[in-house]
Amino acid sequence: MKNELDSKDIQILRLLLNNARLSNKEIAAKVEIAQSSAHDRIKKLTQKGYFKGAYGQIDQKKLGLNVEVILAIKLNKQHRSIIADFIEKASQFPGVIQVFHMAGDSDFILHVAVKDSDELRGFILDRLSTLDYIQSTQTTMVLHNEKANNFIPPFS
Description:
By secondary structure, the chain is an alpha+beta fold.
């Protein structure tokens, strides 16, 4: 498969991954291209689907969300309708940061931030346990969360 991105495109992707609020002027200066070229490249990258969206990174502790966990969830049934229902419901639960549909021992992984252990207990008992297709959950506490932006391979 031929790589349709050149080194400038890769640089732009990396810059925006680390700070989606950069202006075209700032990007152009860092990549050493004209502002109009930066604008055109960003527009093309967006149209080709390389950008799914731009998101802010929130400091959860400043919001009082001091406990961060990974919840591994196993379903007792594997039907498309159940999977779709769980994704829809879990995505709407307060505190859910991300929902991952998995292959392997767990069917889903939820990344969740809550105020304290009482709120976590309520999340599990009042939200998850009300879904009759959940067989089991396993909770793992996150001690530190660092966003790493190293997944874009170097341009060769």
